[in-house]
Structures are given as C-alpha cells and as structure tokens.
Amino acid sequence: MSNTGDSVIVRFVTEDDKEGWQGLWRSFQDFYSVSFPNELDEFNFKRFLDPNVKMWAAVAVDSTSGKIIGMINFLSHMTTWDFKDKVYINDLYVDESSRVKGVGRELIQFVYEEADKLDTPNVYWCTDESNHRAQLLYTKIGYKAPKSLYKRNGY
C-alpha cells in the first residue's frame, strides 16, 4: 500500500472495488476513443483477483471520501533479454478532477514497489504520442526508451 500524504491510498483492488475500477476503466476507454465489450470488464477483473494469474490492478482511493480516483493495470511476463521477468503497465487512468496532484505518480510508484518485491525491477509502459500531460510525469519517474512500437495490421 502506498500513501500520497494523508489524502490518497494506493492498494490492490478487492472484489468490492469492481464498480469504481469499472467506472475509471470506461473513462480510460473514452479518453483513448476505444471501446471494449462489457464482458471484458468481468474477464479482466476476475484475472486481477486470481492469485494464479500474473496480472494485477491497483486503485488510488481518496481517503477522505473513499472514492476510487485512479487505477493502474499491470502484468509480469518473461523475456528473452534477461533471466528476470519484466513488468508492463498496461493501463493507467486518473479521474480528471484528481489530476496533477501526484496520484499518477503514486500509482506508478506502487507498481515499482510491487515489481521490486517480485524481483522484477524492469518496469515499462507506453503512451500515445499526443498525451503530453502524462509524458510530463513519465519523464520525471522514468525515461523515454529509444524504441518505436509496431503492431500487426488490422489489430
């Protein structure tokens, strides 16, 4: 668990967090102009809670209101470039009213701490080139890798 001063607590999701996580997950989709089937919400949330799956979600909770104001989804995977796994941050979203207050930084710091506990300190993520606000944070807590992302046509 991580704590931004006394106002925000970052922790793994629990079964009781589904509605709050789901609201942010949908806002994340709106932000990136994508849409996933509702069944994917349930599928992912079950995976986050399954101790046999190396995929997790954490939430940032406003300690005053109890409202979930941020979420981060991440996973661990093997790599041919190292003996240790890597951790990939798949999704990060902070409610618009809670941005620029350190919540995104605390969510990423939570992942860093969990990756260290797993002995997988190599953490990486990507973002849209146009997401300049997020990049202002990312350059403070990481570095921009000299790689370009390519995807299979049609996917």
TrEMBL record:
InterPro entries tied to this protein: Acyl_CoA_acyltransferase (IPR016181), Diverse_Substrate_AcTransf (IPR051016), GNAT_dom (IPR000182)
Domain of life, per lineage: Eukaryota
GO terms of molecular function: N-acetyltransferase activity
Keywords: Acyltransferase, Transferase
Pfam family, one: Acetyltransf_1
Database matches in SUPFAM superfamilies: Acyl-CoA N-acyltransferases (Nat) (SSF55729)
The keyword Transferase belongs to this UniProt entry's keyword annotation: yes
Record's GO cellular component terms: cytoplasm
Family membership: Belongs to the acetyltransferase family. GNAT subfamily.
Protein name listed in UniProt: HPA2-like protein
Native source species: Saccharomyces kudriavzevii (strain ATCC MYA-4449 / AS 2.2408 / CBS 8840 / NBRC 1802 / NCYC 2889)
Taxonomic path: Eukaryota, Fungi, Dikarya, Ascomycota, Saccharomycotina
Gene giving rise to this polypeptide: YPR193C
